[in-house]
Amino acid sequence: MKIGIVRFPGSNCEVDCFEAWKVMGEKPEMIWHQETSVQGYDLIVLPGGFSYGDYLRTGAIARFSPIMEDVIRFAENGGLVWGICNGFQILTECGLLPGALLRNRDLHFICGPQYLRVEHDNLPFTNQYKKGDIIQIPVNHGEGNYTIDDKGLNELKANNQIVFRYVTAKGEVNDTGSPNGSRDNIAGIVNKEGNILGMMPHPERVVEEIIGGTDGQGMFLSILKHWERRMKHGA
Amino acid sequence: MIKATVTVTLKNSILDPQGSAVEKALRSMDYPVESVRIGKFMEVNLSEDDKNKAEEIMHEICRKLLSNPVIEDYSFELEG
């Protein structure tokens, strides 16, 4: 699988993503944001960080980086795009995913382990989990408070687009379980077609016991499984 | 040259935790404050002398980059 990780000025989780893919046995490549083509790639990762210093709004300026025009074309043609943290913010800014990410409810920058519940297990990104699984994936953000209007939220629910929710250790969806005030405890969503995923937590930081856990591995394995099936069936 | 002064604010339907924190601080200082909303102020100098064109450009700039229409409203004034 040919995996490309886009590096923007101010990205700081691109190396984590790179190393995580290597742990999973792949040979990812870095793509500088000034490049203009993602042709030949099977997956594009938009990593976490503070692209363009988060100036104006998180992800707002990165969205106009030269590479993004082709990333948008790639995504709209069904290519797999995975936005983590700042990558999620960029995906909402360019309209590939609905809603927006605001300052955390309590205004603090939050960084630490977080329980998530898997809400959708029939996706290229999550097929190795089971719906209802409680996993622990770290969060690390100041602006992860997902917001969307009533109509948008109803659409997300109707189309089964909510992938992860913040929960307590027991799996309860409530304010205590949510670290940032996100609407309906939303931690990650996909587009209607299921090929573009955005999430605030960092699965690339939990792929080896030595760095604190392996709950994030499932996403990498899911993507690889999806790719293997696709190759087998020539679709 | 035309100067545009742009104000970007969170839509009323969007919670503004920064505004709420400032509001609470002002109340704790015993000021008669009802509410506070925090926004952004920007000055844009355009190399364009036609006011109609400048207005058109500013609407485009505001929609595309300076504000996020999902969560924010914008307004601007032109001078010069």
A few lines on this structure:
The complex is a heterodimer of chains A (235) and B (80). Chain A is α/β, with parallel strands linked by helices. Chain A is 23% helix and 23% strand.
List keywords for this structure.
heterodimer; A: 235 residues; alpha/beta; Rossmann fold; nine-stranded mixed beta sheet; two-stranded antiparallel sheet; 5 helices; 11 strands; globular; B: 80 residues; alpha+beta; Mth169, Chain: A; three-stranded antiparallel beta sheet; 2 helices; 3 strands
Task: Report on this structure.
The complex is a heterodimer of chains A (235) and B (80). With 235 residues, chain A is an alpha/beta fold. Chain A has helices at residues 14-23, 66-76, 86-93, 150-158, 217-232, and strands at residues 3-7, 29-32, 43-46, 80-84, 100-102, 110-118, 134-141, 145-147, 162-166, 186-190, 196-199. Chain A has a single domain (3-232), classed as 3-Layer(aba) Sandwich (Rossmann fold). Helices cover 23% and strands 23% of the residues of chain A. Chain A is globular and about 45 Å long. With 80 residues, chain B is an alpha+beta fold. Chain B has a single domain, classed as Phosphoribosylformylglycinamidine synthase subunit PurS (Mth169, Chain: A). Helix content of chain B is 35%, strand content 31%. Chain B is built from two helices and three strands, in the order βαβαβ. Chain B has helices spanning 17-28, 51-66, and strands at residues 2-10, 39-46, 72-79. The longest helix of chain B is centred in the C-terminal third of the chain and has 16 residues, at 51-66. The mean pLDDT of chain B is 96. Chains A and B meet through loops of A and helix 1 of B.
